[in-house]
Specification:
InterPro entries: MetI-like (IPR000515), MetI-like_sf (IPR035906), UgpAE/MalFG_permease (IPR050809). This protein has 348 residues and is mainly alpha-helical. 72% of the residues lie in helices and 0% in strands.
Length: 348
């Protein structure tokens, strides 16, 4: 009787795969419908605009070009930013929670007094200092070496290739590199196998040993960003007029002296742009930490803790405060980057 009742009850519960598929299908159809509706509205607007003539033609064309962009900017950036800032001053725990109250700066006070969050902020600044600096140095050296090579297409492609890989994909690849097996067992992790061949018979468990695990995660980001830095800096080196290089060589400058006194000063603005761009990308690092360690073992960063507070531990207001802190840090870097790009453009 028990077996029969269980056998009859089991088919009544929908399979997990079917439920997941139906949810994914509904989400996909909703996204397709939203895109189709937006395109239909644009088609109607362009159709009407094409029939307008006379004085209204030019103003209407400007409005048609600006309104969709401003609408998307408002919907995707301005409204979420205002909502996040507003939530950071509340005691909201869940998304969409009603009846919340304003608590002033308590969430910010918690962020700068909680020991775990403070360590996360300091660790994020450590990423901000180390990753962009090493990335630019390696990218600059690689760009200089490639600039002196006749056939540099293959090495340039190999160096740039990691830039095309997603952060999650790169994290999975390097996760195999950092894989750990106990000494005496077959080593599947490349790093453990190499150091044991070199004589280190008892290497640590790389991803749970602090603080080395944080630096190993930084290596992933550096590996991804070096290709970008190399391509931009190589283009900047090639833009230096040959007459200046030849004149410097005639005056006795060569090798490192030529690089230090002529080439680096002439591409300084490009170096700064690359540095600030990598800094902005590093500040928003989430995928690498989330995929490899999920912030455990003293590897957490601001972006991952913000996500955890908002969507895992149901502390929306605290997560919003971290998002605002991250935004405040990124904002001056963005303005400085834009200023440098404009200055470089005017100098040309």
């Amino acid at each position: 009787m028990v077996g029969t009742s269980l056998g009859q009850a089991l088919p009544m519960a929908p399979p997990l795969a079917t439920s997941t598929f139906s949810q994914a299908s509904g989400t996909l159809l909703g996204a397709i419908g939203a895109v189709a509706g937006f395109l239909a509205i644009l088609a109607v607007i362009f159709f009407v605009a094409g029939r307008v003539t006379g004085r209204l033609q030019k103003p209407l064309a400007v409005i048609i070009c600006l309104v969709p962009a401003l609408f998307l900017l408002l919907l995707g950036l301005i409204v979420p930013a205002i909502t996040t800032i507003n939530n950071s001053f509340k005691n909201q725990q869940f998304l969409g929670e009603l009846g919340t109250k304003y608590v002033g700066l308590k969430n910010y006070q918690f962020a700068f007094t909680d020991s775990y969050t403070l360590q996360t902020i300091l660790r994020t600044f450590l990423w901000l200092i180390i990753v962009p600096t090493i990335t630019v140095i390696i990218g600059l050296v690689a760009a200089l070496l490639l600039d002196r090579m006749r056939r540099n297409a293959v090495p340039k492609t190999l160096l740039f290739l990691p830039t095309a890989i997603s952060f999650v994909g790169a994290s999975v690849i390097w996760g195999y590199v950092y894989d750990y097996r106990a000494p005496g067992s077959p080593q599947t992790g490349l790093l453990s196998a190499v150091v044991m061949k070199l004589g280190w018979h008892n290497p640590p468990h790389w991803l749970i040993s602090s603080p080395i695990n944080t630096f190993l995660l930084m290596v992933i980001m550096i590996w991804i960003q070096v290709g970008f830095a190399m391509v931009v800096l190589n283009a900047a080196l090639k833009s230096i007029p040959d007459e200046i290089i030849e004149s410097a060589r005639l005056e006795g400058a060569s090798g490192f002296r030529l690089f230090r006194t002529i080439q680096v000063p002439m591409i300084r603005s490009t170096v700064v742009v690359v540095l600030t761009t990598v800094m902005i990308t590093t500040l928003k690092v989430f995928d690498i930490v989330f995929t490899v360690t999920n912030g455990n073992y003293n590897t957490d960063v601001l972006a991952r803790q913000m996500y955890a507070d908002m969507f895992v531990t149901s502390q929306v207001s605290r997560g919003s405060a971290l998002a605002v802190i991250l935004f405040v840090i990124v904002l001056p870097l963005m303005f400085y980057n834009i200023r440098q790009l404009r200055r470089e453009r005017t100098e040309r």
